[in-house]
């Protein structure tokens, strides 16, 4: 019985370290995903503004198309 306890002495520490490693990788993945989401949202906002400006310019051109010589 003593040899079993002696062979199990460092197993809990290794299991705890592996658990912390897995948890840390999950947290890092969530942070990376959040950063990517913020970047994508910013790009989408710029594209929306560009589309709105293009629509406004196109409507101005079509309004003044009859004035072109």
From TrEMBL:
Assigned keywords, A-Z: Membrane, Transmembrane, Transmembrane helix
Taxonomy, superkingdom: Bacteria
TM stretches of this protein: 12-33
Identification of the protein by name: Prepilin-type cleavage/methylation domain-containing protein
Source species of the chain: Candidatus Propionivibrio dominans
Lineage of origin: Bacteria, Pseudomonadati, Pseudomonadota, Betaproteobacteria, Rhodocyclales
């Amino acid at each position: 019985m003593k040899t079993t306890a002696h062979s199990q002495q460092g197993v809990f520490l290794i299991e705890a370290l592996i658990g912390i490693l897995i948890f840390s990788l999950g947290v890092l993945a969530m942070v990376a995903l959040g950063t990517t989401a913020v970047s994508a949202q910013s790009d989408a906002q710029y594209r929306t503004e560009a589309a709105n400006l293009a629509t406004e310019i196109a409507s101005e051109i079509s309004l003044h198309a009859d004035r072109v010589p």
